[in-house]
């Protein structure tokens, strides 16, 4: 089995996609302790490095991976994107922007067969050209493809979320890989918001605030490609044992916590048509026949801990739950996040869709010698 390291792993969307594509993730890196705790629940056998990657060298990562570190087939990861995002302030001097270069520095030190760096499309702006050029200059000897922009919904996830992927590989190690290899198949099972939310409880009590009270029963289970990834397709040594057992034996899922809205807010939400925006909150009511817009993560403590605007449920006068957000992002029902709503939404919003990650890495796996 080919092996990879996941840098800026977050809660593990890229790692899950890697495992499902036939890779083994032998080490992961993220400097957020709460994120690291959630990652460990989902990937209990994967060594974790909880350090600032800008102060980390490749040897430390390989040492953490142990005997499996050896010769790496790949390095994957999604460097922080907030500084490049069209939604944020887009400051050229945002310190987080330099972490994009740190990814390529680690690649230059460990020299894997291939690498994949994921980011927001805003990084392609002319104002960030020097970041891209400096990063690629750090990996001489690699063939680096033109940036590939992919939309999650084109690969079967119920979200319009688009991301750009920077892919590089050592010559004579990967066969005939090109940007065309990452295009979606002609026949893809397209999933709408209404499809994705089926089976999850619609009546959410606002008093369900704790992680324990967020465990609720499904009332329907679908069949097909998307639902196989929602309930099953669990790679060996992946997943929280209790969460998998509760899903399989009791049909229970976590993350169904409620949100307390005032009567006035609930009334406003109830009067919105599907697809309309609530002007005071700028929250959009989801359309059951449409796709979910990009779920935003908000800001961390170092940037004010601002909560992101959450989509409004298509039929209920409330914002969506963490589990609903996870479904819309393409995460399986057994996947675990932080016990709090705020951190759960941050972890989901910061993740690459596992469905998209699986597609990208499957395309590479087919080309490895």
Task: Explain how this protein is built.
- There is one protein chain.
- With 369 residues, the protein is an alpha/beta fold.
- It folds into two domains: 3-187 and 352-365, Rossmann fold (3-Layer(aba) Sandwich), CATH 3.40.50; 193-349, DNA Methylase, Chain A, domain 2 (Alpha-Beta Complex), CATH 3.90.120.10.
- Helices cover 29% and strands 13% of the residues.
- The protein contains twelve helices and twelve strands.
- The strands form three sheets. Strands 1, 2, 3, 4, 5, 6, 7 and 8 form an eight-stranded mixed β-sheet that branches.
- Helix 4 (98-110) packs parallel to helix 5 (129-137).
- The longest helix is centred in the N-terminal third of the chain and has 13 residues, at 98-110.
- 44% of the residues are buried.
Please outline what is shown here.
With 369 residues, the protein is of the alpha/beta class. It has helices at residues 13-20, 33-42, 58-65, 98-110, 129-137, 193-197, 225-231, 241-250, 263-271, 322-329, 341-349, 354-365; strands spanning 3-7, 24-29, 48-49, 74-77, 114-119, 142-144, 148-151, 162-170, 216-217, 252-253, 277-278, 283-284. The longest helix is centred in the first third of the chain and has 13 residues, at 98-110.
């Amino acid at each position: 089995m080919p092996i990879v390291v996941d840098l800026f792993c977050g809660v593990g969307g890229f790692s899950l996609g890697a495992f499902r594509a036939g890779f083994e993730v032998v080490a992961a890196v993220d400097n957020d302790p709460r994120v690291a705790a959630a990652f460990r629940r989902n990937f209990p056998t994967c060594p974790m490095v909880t350090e600032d990657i800008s102060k980390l060298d490749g040897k430390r990562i390989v040492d953490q991976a142990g005997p499996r570190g050896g010769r790496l087939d790949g390095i994957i990861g999604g460097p922080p994107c907030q500084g490049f995002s069209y939604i944020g302030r887009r400051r050229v001097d945002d310190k987080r922007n330099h972490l994009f270069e740190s990814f390529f520095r680690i690649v230059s030190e460990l020299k894997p067969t291939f690498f994949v760096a994921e980011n927001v499309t805003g990084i392609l702006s002319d104002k960030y050209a020097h970041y891209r050029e400096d990063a690629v200059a750090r990996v001489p000897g690699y063939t680096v493809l033109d940036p590939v922009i992919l939309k999650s919904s084109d690969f079967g996830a119920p979200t319009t979320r688009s991301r750009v992927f920077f892919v590089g590989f050592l010559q004579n190690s990967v066969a005939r890989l090109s940007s065309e290899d990452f295009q979606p198949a002609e026949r893809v099972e397209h999933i709408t918001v209404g499809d994705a939310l089926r089976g999850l409880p619609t009546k959410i009590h606002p008093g369900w605030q704790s992680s324990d009270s967020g465990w609720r029963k499904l009332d329907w289970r679908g069949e097909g490609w998307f639902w196989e990834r929602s309930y099953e397709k669990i790679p060996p040594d992946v997943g929280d044992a209790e969460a998998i057992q509760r899903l399989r034996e009791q049909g229970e899922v976590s993350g169904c916590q409620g949100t307390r809205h005032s009567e006035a807010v609930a009334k406003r939400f109830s009067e919105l048509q599907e697809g309309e925006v609530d002007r005071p909150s700028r929250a959009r009511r989801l359309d059951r026949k449409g796709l979910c817009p990009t779920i935003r993560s908000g800001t961390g403590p170092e940037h004010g801990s601002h909560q992101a605007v959450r989509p409004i449920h298509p039929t209920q006068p409330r914002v969506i739950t963490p589990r609903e957000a996870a479904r819309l992002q393409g995460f399986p029902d057994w996947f675990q996040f932080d016990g709090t709503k705020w951190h759960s939404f941050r972890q989901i919003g910061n993740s690459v869709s596992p469905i998209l990650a699986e597609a990208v890495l499957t395309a590479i796996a087919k080309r490895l010698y």
